[in-house]
Amino acid sequence: MKSLSSLEQMIEALRRLPGVGPKSATRMAYHLLQHDREGAQMIGQAMINGLNMIHNCGSCNTFTENTLCDTCQDSERDTSLLCVVESPSDQLMIEQTMTYKGLYFVLMGRLSPLDGVGPQDIHLDKLIRRATDGVVKEVVLATNFNNEGEATAHYISETLKVRGLHVSRLARGVPVGGELEYVDPGTIARAMLDRRNT
Amino acid sequence: MKSLSSLEQMIEALRRLPGVGPKSATRMAYHLLQHDREGAQMIGQAMINGLNMIHNCGSCNTFTENTLCDTCQDSERDTSLLCVVESPSDQLMIEQTMTYKGLYFVLMGRLSPLDGVGPQDIHLDKLIRRATDGVVKEVVLATNFNNEGEATAHYISETLKVRGLHVSRLARGVPVGGELEYVDPGTIARAMLDRRNT
Predict the structure, then answer these.
(1) Distance between CA atoms of residues B10 and B21, nearest Å
(2) Does the N terminus or the C terminus of chain A have fewer Cβ atoms within 10 A?
(3) How many other C-beta atoms are found inside a 10 Å radius of the C-beta of residue B34?
């Protein structure tokens, strides 16, 4: 196998994918070469093309092929609202609810000191510039409700509140359709503390 | 997200990898674009380069960048022995045992009628031509010992024996270091039937 440098290069390259170790990478390379050379061609071209075309939106930081993404260019949006999410997938989920008409800021990550992810890795400077443009009145924190997401929300909240912004967070509570018997106690406790008048 | 055709192309391309669904492909694309653009570059170049350089060895069918692979070009090999394996990984395992000095034929798969993998997909014609070249005296079947591997070995054995070749199979039995109490009954039964004189 010594001379197969091209094959070894393929396997080494595939190992750069998250969650892919040496065994998986080898299986993937063999599969592509033996059964799906067209797929390998697609992957190769999509990578090169994507790197050339895709960068971060100058305003909201999501992936786009233009200077500003479609959402940021949409003149029907409420520019006084800015929703902070961890990823483009999260933004898409919120869009699908049809309940939010403001703009977004995509962190492309979350604070995670144990993994070496600090404030500079989630583009906090860019978020501060964006949120303090004088137009944004309220920042809605929609990071995930796990430990890292909560810590990220707390950190951003503290950073923006001292700059005079109104900062809110998605409500926590019993999920729609949830039966109390099967909901975890932490969620019920939170829903009790955050109970609202009817 | 409508205009992000380059990003969608990346995600669609990554889905061609075995074991990668839409969620994983999306996560991989985001990771590469945000945290490892060099990795995306490596993958793109390795794919394009691999497709250009790598093809099947004319003799043993494994992956190589030359007409014949290193093993087939090795003049120290015993050309009367031909070992049939399912994949290059299996060949590597046998090489590491240092117990075999013959040549190989790599099927690049196994018979699996339920998955639509028939004799033409495991290059049986090429194997028959290779095995009946007049030099090969014995074919050692080293396919896996699961259902598909056993069926493949049986099918190849029947096909080659009618052509007058001596066909053998790797021995089955208790693994080295195995304790009878923890070995499955099927293996012990096989080891009892195949017991040999000491």
Answers:
(1) 13
(2) C
(3) 17
Give the CA distances from residue B15 to residues A17, A167, B22, B89, in Å, rounded to whole numbers and listed in that order: 12, 39, 6, 24
List the single residue in A14, A32, A50 with the smallest CB-CB distance to B33: A50
CB-based contact A10 B34, cutoff 8 Å = no
Alpha carbon distance A50, A55 (integer Å): 9
Q: How many Å apart are CA A97 and CA A90, to the nearest integer? A: 11
Q: Parallel, antiparallel, or unpaired: how do β-strands A78-85 and A63-64 relate?
A: unpaired
Nearest to A47 among B17, B43, B49 (CB): B43
User: What CA–CA distance (Å, rounded) separates B87 from B45?
Assistant: 25
- pLDDT per position as a tens digit, A120-179: 889 999 999 999 999 999 999 999 999 999 999 999 999 999 999 999 999 888 888 888
Q: Which residues of A157-187 are buried (b: 16+ CB within 10 A; e: fewer)?
A: bebbeeeebebebeeebeeeeeeeeeeeeeb
> A24-43: per-residue pLDDT in tens?
999 999 999 988 999 999 99
CB-CB contact of B109 with B118 (8 Å): no
Q: A13: which 2 tokens?
A: 């390259």
C-alpha distances in Å from residue B41, one per residue of B13, B19, B137: 14, 22, 48
How far does A140 lie from chain B, in Å, by closest CA? 21
CA separation (Å) from A47 to A66, B19, B53, B190? Answer: 18, 19, 19, 50
Rounded to two decimals, the pTM is 0.79
